[in-house]
């Protein structure tokens, strides 16, 4: 039987047009290591008898290059040319398009067509969260796509690569679905690896790790040398949060790597690849709390820093866990709170969390010098203004180090998607708009235009105007976040304003003057920022006056010019 080649392609996670337009100041989010593809490569390389080679093209990297070059040339043509060059150089038998999010949908057909235009005999496949949940729609709207894998791909791809008749296998296999299968009423099912230790160590050398090195949430380390690498020590989540599509990809039964295997992998990542920051990206790290504590204690011996960027369960954090975090080098965790309203948590999201648990968790983390971030989701059907105000009050009361406010996205495979479709709530059906900064849901109590403004102003209020770390005099904490903001968004007036105040409080006069001048310049020339200051009672001139005479000599010409 001839040996087979497989090319993985990752379409951009984001709508390229939102970032390549010269008139916008959007900053491309950091990319996470394509852990799923690395896992499949490791498993297939060991277990697939007829596999010759696997390669990867990540178009997020291409998109970042175009953004760095400020290129507004046709990105579609650039993507197509890159794929066809890879096809010509590699000559794969299969091309697998890995699409995680709704926003990747618009690229799939174009990529599949580029493959078929190059060689119609290449079998085009898709997998990941989006195709797993929306396989029928994707096969209907992507005519150049041959088949879709339901859920995790290690076992289905092994069976496909080793099949004598791949076309027949795609029709008969429980985890593959084709148009023929859809027409026959087939419902694809998962094929899971029960013991994650069966997956061999991953080949990080197939990536340029420098492309995946800026996802950290602890902004103390933004400008410091580091090597971030990700791990998923478990798969699956038993909860059914309304906005989550996890069950369509990993199921509800949680499967684990052994603690010993995790330690071996992390040690190898540190020693062979220079990792200094371990990004633990489990969907539910504390499903087995005793295992989680054993793992943290073991990682504490490895001399690395850790972060939890995906969100951890608040109810699991007590003084013991916070102390273990600190011992294990955990510098920052994101807390999966989502709402400050018990009604929204319990009756809309269906999340087993009570608000009273949040403050003790934050205080335990602060006691052990672990930064606390929080994820908030606004705009769920059934959420009212009073619930959103409860959320703002909760954010101010609990004193997180940084707050991330997102807008609800009806992800394919989530209960939220079904609710929105059944009730006609999706305001903008274009999948390019299905990102956390755009409101696409219009439902009773949810106005998309007002919601986008409310979400942004909430972040201004809790991260700047009501910044907790500044209130308690921890300017050493606040300053790193403010620096990160102005580095990404040089015209962020509040960022410069509060950064100037941090520098002033620390006795750093030169930097205080510099950022005060920048703040005044933006306020003088930008009507919107002045309106935000007026709306929220931010008297920026009076706030900056104590910085001193050096500011006055710099600021007066700016005011006159404005």
Can you give a write-up of this model?
The protein is built from 26 helices and 14 strands. The protein has 562 residues and is an alpha/beta fold. The strands form three sheets. It has a six-stranded mixed β-sheet, with helices on both faces. Strands 7-10-11-12-13-14 form a six-stranded parallel β-sheet. α5 (105-118) links the parallel β3 and β4 (123-127). The protein is globular and about 80 Å long.
Quick summary:
With 562 residues, the chain is an alpha/beta fold. The protein has helices spanning 17-20, 35-47, 59-68, 75-90, 105-118, 129-133, 135-141, 154-161, 166-172, 179-183, 246-250, 259-273, 289-299, 319-327, 342-349, 358-367, 385-398, 415-423, 448-465, 468-471, 475-488, 493-505, 509-525, 527-535, 540-544, 549-561; strands at 4-10, 51-58, 94-98, 123-127, 147-149, 176-177, 228-231, 234-235, 255-256, 277-280, 305-312, 330-338, 371-378, 402-407. The strands form 3 sheets. A 6-stranded mixed β-sheet has the order 2-1-3-4-5-6, with helices on both faces.
What is the rounded Rg? 25 Å
Q: Major sheet: size, sense and barrel closure? A: 6 strands, mixed
What percent of residues adopt helix (DSSP H or I)?
40-55%
Shape, please? Answer: globular
N-C termini distance? 75 Å
Physical arrangement of strands within the biggest beta sheet: 2-1-3-4-5-6
Structural class label: alpha/beta
- Average pLDDT, to the nearest integer? 91
Unreliable sequence segments: 555-562
Q: How large a portion of the residues is in β-strands, by DSSP E?
A: 5-15%
| SS field, number of helical segments | 26
Number of strands: 14
